[in-house]
Design a protein that fits this description.
Blueprint: E1 2-7, E2 13-20, E3 28-33, E4 36-41, E5 44-51, E6 57-62, H1 75-81, H2 85-98, E7 107-112, H3 127-134, E8 141-145, E9 154-157, H4 167-178, E10 184-189, E11 194-199, H5 201-210, E12 216-221, H6 225-253, H7 261-277, E13 285-286, H8 290-301
Parallel strand pairs: 3-13, 9-11, 10-12
Antiparallel strand pairs: 1-2, 2-7, 3-4, 4-5, 5-6, 6-8, 7-12, 10-11
Helix pairs in contact: 3-5, 4-5, 6-7
Length: 310
């Protein structure tokens, strides 16, 4: 896997671009059968979901089969990387690449420190209140409400969230107060219109308990490298054509006409930044066996319970 630093428009660090060589099916994979979804990890059902027929949300059933692709953090690692999102991103990217439990497949990804979740918190809302409101509740079943949280992109834990007095949460609460809490790893899944917690359930619980903004690394599928190169070439070509047009105008009308760099330069920078950081829909593979297989798995994981109701 090739890693490349990605900056913001002002040149500051935003995240890592991950260019993954051909990997047809990831260990953590989304499958679809009509309006029914399955997230499976190496053949273990992790989450079953049914999209509401009116597209108001999605019912889900979460199993206890999920395993993080990132091994438990050692205390010395946390101390060494404390306060450095760049070093954390490289640390986590190595495990995402190496782990057979990872959602990475062939293509280009972004591991971004600029989470979209930060945009929606009102200044008058505490971090604890906001963080709690964004968490999707329910175990083993629950509901992701697209109507109530339209464009808010909720956070769906892949295992039950630990309590504030849990021993792991207590250990992280001190780091949360000190500003050295390791980041929470989220995976944006477009078919659910929400983020899944890949790693850091206890760290997120600690941040909410201390009412601080949790550091987040958000993983999502990005513009493929070949498409990015072609569209970058088009954008640069447009920039050069515009400069040539301004030069012709200056030749006719004199130096009162600007050279165009101040006009099209920022536009080019904005387009290139958007190209390098914009997301793409999550891969969803056809479920082998279709809806019949989905229903078989539903009966198996729910022990025959009537889910979803109705």
């Amino acid at each position: 896997m090739r890693r490349e630093e990605v900056g913001r428009g002002d040149g500051s660090w935003r995240g890592l671009s991950l260019d993954v060589p051909d990997r047809v099916q990831p260990g953590l994979c989304v499958f679809g059968a009509g309006q029914r979804l399955l997230i499976s990890q190496r053949s273990r059902p992790v989450l079953l979901a049914v999209v509401d027929e009116h597209l108001d949300g999605v019912d889900f059933w979460r199993t206890d089969a999920y395993r993080s692709p990132v091994p438990p953090l050692r205390a010395d690692t946390a101390r060494t990387l404390a306060g450095s999102p760049e070093r954390w991103a490289h640390h986590i990217a190595r495990y995402l690449d190496a782990s057979p439990e990872s959602p990475l497949h062939g293509g280009r990804w972004l591991l971004s420190y600029e989470s979209r979740l930060r945009r929606w918190r009102h200044p008058g809302t505490s971090h604890a209140e906001y963080g709690s409101s964004m968490l999707v509740e329910g175990h083993p079943d629950g509901y992701v409400d697209w109507y109530l949280h339209s464009l808010a992109w909720e956070v769906l834990p892949l295992r039950p969230m630990p309590a504030a007095d849990d021993s792991r949460v207590k250990a992280y609460r001190k780091q949360a107060r000190e500003g050295t809490l390791p980041p929470v790893l989220l995976w944006w899944v477009s078919g659910l219109d929400c983020h899944l917690i890949l790693d850091g359930h206890a760290r997120l619980a600690a941040a909410i308990a201390e009412s601080v903004e949790p550091p987040v690394l958000e993983l999502y599928r990005a513009v493929p490298s070949d498409d990015l190169a072609a569209r970058t070439e088009d954008a640069v070509g447009f920039y050069e054509d515009e400069l040539a047009r301004f030069a012709e105008l200056r030749a006719v009308h004199g130096p009162t006409v600007p050279d165009g760099a101040a006009v099209v330069g920022p536009q080019l920078a904005r387009v290139l930044h958007e190209l390098s950081t914009s997301g793409r829909p999550t891969w969803c593979l056809p479920l082998p066996g279709g809806e019949a297989e989905w229903h078989r798995l539903r009966r198996e994981v729910t022990a025959g319970q009537d889910w979803p109701a109705g």
